[in-house]
Write a structure and sequence with these properties.
Elements lengths: L5 E2 L5 E2 L2 H21 L9 H12 L9 E2 H12 L4 H12 L9 E4 L18 E4 L4 H4 L9 E3 L6 E3 L8 H4 L2 E4 L4 E4 L4 H13 L5 H4 L13 E2 L3 H10 L1 E7 L1 E5 L2 E6 L6 H13 L6 E6 L9 E5 L6 H11 L3 E7 L1 E3 L5 E3 L2 H42 L1 H10 L3 H9 L3 H8 L8 H26 L1 H19 L26 E7 L3 E6 L16 E8 L3 E6 L3 E6 L11 E2 L12 E6 L5 E6 L3 E6 H4 L7 E2 L9 E6 L7 E6 L3 E6 L12 E2 L5 H5 L5 E7 L3 E7 L2 E5 L1 H4 L11 E2 L9 E6 L17 E2 L8
Helix pairs in contact: 2-3, 3-4, 7-17, 12-13, 12-15, 12-16, 13-14, 14-15, 16-17
Subcellular location: Cell membrane
Pfam family, one: DNA_topoisoIV
Organism: Opacimonas viscosa
């Protein structure tokens, strides 16, 4: 492209606008990438951050110094090193001072430095004061020991360090974000101790695999107690590629029915979250929430209280909705892009970062040791000359007193170097005492020992690695702390559907003999005493929640379902289900049940067949319902019985002939639909003619008692008594005692809950009847 450049008659160089703009943009982009936006792997700082830290160090603002106005620091940074805007420089300084932004703050601020709710609410720099934090020693402790390369500042008047000699891998400790031209960086913060242990492993074995490093580096560690819920496999992928995303979720607890949020995701605003929840409440999208409060204070920096409308609200489900629709759950992009030791920006994996930083650290330690060794050798050289002078003190004094050029004479007489001779001439008379000779010998011995030790370290690769490892682990112990952000496996949050947003209130669904259904509020409903149409009357009822579906079963074994809240109120006489469902002519509804999706039921027919099914398998969106229980000829459906524990519960069946059989529920198959297996042996011919059939079916807990009622007589069978009736599935069962073979009702209660009552028909709050209606134990 050199042929595009021309020189006019006035000697001015000219070039096409296209080339000028292209070169100008490339130069600008390289400047932004290298000197503005991306951190260096050595100290993990952008230039503006490095200049702020160095300027504060230059001002003497150590962790033990008095605070100075931030404006003083910003003025020094702008005047000496960073000729840019003061507001941008001050904001960079503020971020390094905010404990909710930086995992390990580098600046110790006094005054208003912002709050988690509004990080940019900090006071102007003329009001705030600052000094370096204790942790900044990690970056500055070795600065004056020959460890850093220096470069002229922008006007060439003073020098500034190119990279600070970091004692720990700060590039990963505090995290950093930056936007350059054509690239960006988003490095999450990490825990000092975890990274130090990983570095120690790499020093012990440079071939350590990433999976071994991840035994120590569990994942990012943000300055908040909120949970990291990203799966560990995804975290491993981030460290393999240098790219990905991290998901954080707030921490909450249930305190007396109120939801108390005690930790928010990194950089999430509590005020904004409350506003997001309030907006949903105003738009009637959170009917289950009645109140919001912010109880945060100095003792509890984060305490947001969400009050459910009632104690029956499913708190877990509500929080899942809030996680999905508010900033209680946030995603953070990870793009581990940095300037490497080769001076080029690149996205790096974890092992490469730590290996490259350790290379930088080794170079820094080598330079520090060599700097100290050079100082020791120079001092020993001078001490050697001083010792010669003390051994020949009279002659030295004579030369100094009489010679015109004593320096040259001393050098010639005793073979001294220029530096040694100068040191002898600079001696004060008080140092000619005998005691000084002893001090010189002692200092020589001490320095010689240190010299030998340093030379040994510099000549041994193994010793050098051991030293670096010890220093890293020691610094991690000094400046490190425990992990703040726990890594927890959580399921994906899902927003509630319109149906799920229906308040979860106790309801009772009532079914009449003629197939009319309605939904009454509460569980203490006298279903049989409700008003019914004409000669219609009560058939069955089921208790559940308003946001649950109700399943209706017809005489053919088909199931039909609809939302309970979609049924008419119990103040009316309901509506005919034949208008809602496509029931086959001649069939009738026999029962209604409600439950949670995973609730298991004993599903059976009176011909003695059945299986274990879940409530969700009974649901059907189709108007024609679902063919659920296959019935033999003339068989009838028995009300499904809820299962407590399939591993220990027993099935109980009683036939109209007074035979009773119990067997383990686990012997039955779990099916989505079908006929099932034989439960109790009833001859098919007798079942078909209705000569013999099952009259009662129940699920019996392993430690329960069974009360059998026949007319006015009753008998309680304890677990030891029930053993007589336990047999294999499909057997005939044993006969009940005479007078009790025509069973009208069975009541089941756990042994410890039974209350002995001599009067037949006395109510027992722990009893469960075979009709499927039960009270809470």
């Amino acid at each position: 492209m050199s042929n595009e450049v021309t020189i006019n008659q006035d000697g001015i160089e000219q070039l096409p606008m296209r080339r000028f703009t292209e070169e100008a943009y490339l130069n600008y982009s390289m400047y932004v990438i290298m000197d503005r936006a991306l951190p260096h792997i050595g100290d993990g700082l952008k230039p503006v951050q490095r200049r702020i830290i160095y300027a504060m160090s230059d001002l003497g603002l150590s962790a033990n110094a008095k605070y100075k106005k931030s404006a003083r620091t910003v003025g020094d940074v702008l005047g000496k090193f960073h000729p840019h805007g003061d507001s941008a420089c001050y904001e960079a300084m503020v971020l390094m001072a905010q404990p909710f932004t930086y995992r390990y703050p580098l600046v110790d601020g006094q005054g208003n430095w912002g709050a988690p709710d509004d990080p940019k609410s900090f006071a102007a720099m003329r009001y705030t004061e600052a000094r370096l934090s204790k942790f900044s020693e990690v970056l500055l402790a070795e600065l004056g020991q020959g460890t850093a390369d220096w470069q002229p500042n922008f006007d060439g008047t003073i020098e500034e360090p190119k990279v600070l000699p970091a004692r720990l891998p700060h590039i990963l400790l505090n995290g950093i974000t930056g936007i350059a031209v054509g690239m960006a960086t988003d490095i999450p913060p990490h825990n000092v101790r975890e990274l130090a242990n990983a570095c120690a492993k790499l020093l012990d074995n440079s071939k350590t695999e990433l999976s071994e490093l991840l035994e120590d580096v569990q994942g990012p560690d943000y300055p908040t107690d909120a949970e990291i819920i990203t799966p560990r496999a995804d975290i491993q992928k981030i460290y393999e590629t240098g790219r990905g995303s991290i998901k954080m979720r707030a921490v909450y607890s249930d305190e007396g029915g109120e939801i108390v949020i005690t930790a928010l995701p990194h950089q999430a605003s509590g005020a904004k979250i409350l506003e997001q929840i309030a907006n949903q409440m105003q738009n009637k999208k959170l009917p289950m929430v009645s109140d919001l409060r912010d109880e945060s204070d100095h003792e509890n920096p984060t305490r947001l209280v969400v009050t459910p409308r009632s104690n029956r609200v499913d708190i877990e489900q509500l929080m899942q909705h809030l996680f999905a629709t508010t900033d209680l759950e946030k995603n953070y992009r990870v793009n581990i892009n940095m300037i490497g030791l080769d001076g080029r920006p690149k996205v790096k994996d974890l092992k490469t970062i730590l290996s490259e930083w350790l290379e930088y650290r080794r170079d820094t330690v080598t330079r520090r040791l060599q700097f100290r060794l050079d100082k020791i050798l120079a001092r020993l050289h001078i001490l050697e000359g001083l010792m010669i002078a003390f051994l020949n003190i009279d002659e030295v004094i004579e030369i100094i007193r009489n010679e015109e050029k004593p320096k040259q004479e001393l050098m010639a007489r005793f073979g001294l170097s220029d530096i040694q001779a100068e040191a002898i001439l600079d001696l004060k008379l008080r140092h000619l005492a005998k005691l000084e000779e002893m001090k010189i010998k002692g200092e020589q011995d001490e320095l010689a020992a240190e010299r030998d030790k340093l030379q040994l370290l510099l000549s041994s690769d193994r010793r050098m690695k051991t030293l670096i490892k010890k220093e890293i682990l020691a610094d991690a112990e000094t400046y490190g702390d425990d992990r703040r952000s726990p890594i927890v496996e959580r399921g994906e949050a899902k927003a509630l559907s319109e149906k799920e947003l229906v308040p979860s209130e106790p309801v009772t669904v009532v079914l009449s003999e003629k197939g009319w259904a309605r939904c009454a509020k509460g569980h203490d409903v006298d279903a049989a005493g409700l008003s019914y149409k004409g000669d219609d009357k009560y058939l069955a009822s089921a208790k559940g929640r308003s946001n649950q579906p109700a399943v209706f079963i017809d005489t053919s074994g088909r199931t039909f379902s609809c939302d309970a809240h979609g049924l008419p109120s119990a103040r009316s006489q309901g509506e005919p289900l034949s208008g809602r469902f496509g029931i086959v002519a001649g069939e009738n509804f026999t029962d209604v049940i409600m439950g949670k999706d995973e609730q298991q039921f004993l599903v059976s027919c009176d011909a003695g067949y059945g299986f274990v099914g879940t409530f969700k398998d009974m649901l059907s969106k189709a108007k024609a319902g679902k063919a659920y229980l296959s019935l033999p000829p003339a068989a009838k459906v028995i009300t499904p019985q809820p299962v407590n524990d399939i591993a220990t519960d027993l099935c109980l069946f009683i036939s109209n002939e007074g035979r009773m059989l119990l067997f383990p529920l686990r012997d039955l198959p779990s099916l989505g639909k079908g006929k099932g297996n034989k439960l109790i042996n009833i001859p098919s011919a007798k079942a078909k003619t209705r000569e013999e059939f099952v009259v009662h079916a129940a699920v019996v807990p392993i430690d329960a008692e069974v009360k059998i009622i026949s007319g006015k007589r009753g008998m309680t069978l304890k677990p030891s008594d029930l053993a007589h009736y336990i047999g294999e599935r499909g057997r005939r069962g044993n006969k009940l005692p005479r007078g009790l073979q025509r069973v009208d009702e069975i009541l089941i209660s756990r042994t410890e809950d039974v209350v002995e009552d001599p009067e037949l028909g006395a109510e027992n709050s722990a009893l469960e009847s075979s009709s499927g209606q039960q009270t809470e134990l």
